[in-house]
Amino acid sequence: MERENVLVSAADMARQQDFTAKIKAIHHQRGQQPKALVDTYGCQQNVADSQNIMGMLAAMGCTFTDDAYQADIVVLNTCAIRDHAEQRVFGTLGTLTHTKKANPRQIICLCGCMAQRKEVADRVRRSYRHVDLVFGPQALWRFPELLYQVYSRSGRVFSIEDEHGAIAEGMPVVREGRTRAWVSIMYGCNNFCSYCIVPYVRGRERSRDPEAILSEVGQLAAEGYKEITLLGQNVNSYGKDLPEKWDFADLLAAIDEIPGDYLIRFMSSQPKDATHKLFDTMARCRHVAPQLHLPVQSGSDRVLRAMNRPYDRAQYLELITYARAVMPDLVLTSDVIIGFPGETEAEAMETVQLVEEVQFDALFTFIFSPRPGTPAARMEDPVPRSEKQKWFDRLCDAQNAISETIHRRYVGQTLRCLVDGETGDSRWPLSARTAGGRLVHLTGDSAALGDYHNIRITDSNTWALFGELVD
Hints:
Transcription Regulator spoIIAA, 4 domains, Rossmann fold, five-stranded mixed β-barrel, 20% strand, 471 residues, alpha/beta, 19 strands, six-stranded parallel beta sheet
């Protein structure tokens, strides 16, 4: 795909600014400062997209609310990875019939990965006629134009064309908080894992220019953000479409030269593109967190082939062995799917055995959920859900025991952690994250929020650490 067909031109971005100004003028003519609600489902990329949507809405003169009855504009930014997430969205759309009835001028927008699916858009056309605007991830940068069409036509607008996708630099952003920030380094996916809908709804891989990324990260570091997470469907393939020779390890090394007191995290990674060069770079970069999320999905080579995952168990284990050799303090997490179509109990137990061999710090575990439009959804799947649940429970029991043991080793240590939130629990009022991303509940004063502090770990359980401020 040619780069000139990927980058949105300055003229096209200026055109969107013109639509933004027109909408702001409409709001002014109505004598109102409208309130907007942006509700986000799914992954960190959706969170980053929602922050761009909020930036555009703010430029239109909107303030923000969490109350749908108070909102003049409602945006649901959706996820298509699992059926449960989609059903939640349809449930929310149903409840919005009441807010629209209370405020007939309310504009309801459905966007994100779920909205890009034709069958979803068709269902919204038929059954959710109170929804005014539907658009997919590739049309995100055109949100002002699409919203203006809703205002000017007083009709429904759908933009879900199947397209490769684009890169739009310079979109406004409203970041939530001053501690963490998300930076998209690339969009789309070329992997076509047989169970995954992402390549169909987010288009092909396209990398942002490194200079744009470095500028954004540099600005965030200068503003005092403490954690910056680099985002992409497969960050390890960053740079393959760039005319100059850049890969993800090169990008990390360049970011590491930016001064400031911050950590860099990234997700998500694909084992097929993870290299020794990447791990060596992580090991020597002072700003890169000692944390790696490397989804394995299955411990069975046959199931991996059926998933269209182009690595095998031995290759995955070699990657982990090398990564831990150069980063002894590495915190390792992964994704696992149990009950893939055609998977046997013996193959599921190969995954459990892999988990016990690797000793992950934590896992994100799922029972297979078929997504319409993917090859896996058409595969024979004779094993009943009840049997898959038994395999899943054995997997979770194994990982929970491992996590509990690993967390126990932290007790007595003093760690530099980012204090990032309040819990509402009087006993453990604050939350923090270790450099490796482990959750810590702790005592202390809210004045510690938003900065790094030394925390003595006093207790642990399967899911978290507990501690106290010592500085």
